[in-house]
Amino acid sequence: MRYISTVFLFFSFAFVFGQDTIVPKENAKLVKENASNVTVSAEPKCGSIVFRKKIERSFRLPDVSEKTSATVIVKFVVWDDGSLRNFEIIKETPANLGLGKELIRLLMKSKRWKPGKVNGRKVKQYFTMPVSIQIMPSKNLVQQSNDDSIQKKD
To answer: Would you say residue 89 lies in a domain?
Structure first.
């Protein structure tokens, strides 16, 4: 059986990088508000702890031949109706494993969130989600690598 140690660091769903957290409506006057103006932050309806566990259970990890530490940061917008849109991979290391796409896939499949609020009014809000992952090698890949190295010596 494959041993995977996965650690998700969501930083309590805090806003990262200090970006504006309100996305103005189309054809509306551009008003910049920062995180201090948001009276209620956007969050998953099931709560952040349950949401993290759902992501952890559903995350499809790639097969690796050696222990790999990975980091993915995805930025998206929680719309005033609770839907998630405008996904952008801010950081993905290592870049060749497809972890950013996998996180976006899970976010797109997730249920609507509770939108952020300013003075009781639902607003669109940027959300930045950092995830750190430790991927342990699959025993099958390690065995196959050892077999390959033995064959190359002959």
So the answer is: yes
Average pLDDT of 89-114?
94
Between the CA of residue 64 and those of 91, 94, 123, 126, 140, what are the distances in Å? 20, 12, 41, 33, 10
> Model confidence over 4-21: pLDDT tens digits?
333 333 333 333 333 344
- Residues in Cβ contact with 97 at an 8 Å cutoff, skipping those fewer than 6 apart: 62, 64, 68, 70, 135
Distance CA 104, CA 89 (A): 8
Confidence check: pLDDT of 150 > 80: no
Residue with tokens 């930083």: 11
Give me the number of domains the chain comprises.
1
Least confident of 13-17, 21-25, 97-101: 13-17
Predicted model pTM: 0.69
Domain of residue 106: give its range.
11-153
Distance CA 8, CA 110 (A): 17
Pairwise CA distance, residues 59 & 44, whole Å? 17
Asked whether residue 4 is assigned to any structural domain, the reply reads no
In angstroms and rounded to an integer, the radius of gyration of the C-alpha atoms of the chain is 19
Question: Would 5 be classed as within a structural domain?
Answer: no
